[in-house]
Amino acid sequence: xxxxxxxxxxxxxxxxxxxxxxxxxxxxxxxxxxxxxxxxxxxxxxxxxxxxxxxxxxxxxxxxxxxxxxxxxxxxxxxxxxxxxxxxxxxxxxxxxxxxxxxxxxxxxxxxxxxxxxxxxxxxxxxxxxxxxxxxxxxxxxxxxxxxx
Length: 149
Prior knowledge:
The chain is 46% helix and 23% strand. It is an alpha+beta fold. The strands form two sheets. A three-stranded antiparallel beta sheet has the order 1-2-3, with no helix packed on it. Strands 4-5-6 form a three-stranded antiparallel beta sheet, covered by helices on one side.
């Protein structure tokens, strides 16, 4: 929703300016004349350009940030046990106990195990050899980690 705030603001601004300019909802001829007003068109386009730049900059920052992580592009091997989740990345192992996971977020092709506000462990569906093993993992995760919501 936050991504749409600026374009919606631009649209609301344009509609408010149009309705103010013609004293109500415009008919076909009034729309054409209003779209010829450079001040209204320029302000609307400026808001949309600001939104597009903010979106592109945030994508570029996130992409650059991801590539700086030590595990970016590496294979992570996850193992589930009674105690928690073990992760191994090129010989470096870590363990996360079940009680550290705050929530489980299920999506069609993955499950996110939320640890903190901006930290989660992704369990992708594609990493399981068949549907039966995926369903077994889902059952374990549903048993151990509460659903968010």
